[in-house]
User: Fold this.
Amino acid sequence: REPLRAVTRNGAATLGLPGPRGVLHPGAVGDLVVLDVPSHLFIGYEFGRDPVAAVVKDGHVAWRRASA
Assistant:
């Protein structure tokens, strides 16, 4: 539970984001980055390749990698 809070509510507070940011519940607006990796353990090994598959801003897909 604490790791999830660290990357949601506490992360939003650290960034000084106003309003109800950093909460996970139905109807909440979210910003996130979707990574194309098999597991979070692979993030540090992605040198030379951009693993970002999509970006969601204010609950809407703001950018998506074009399919190859």
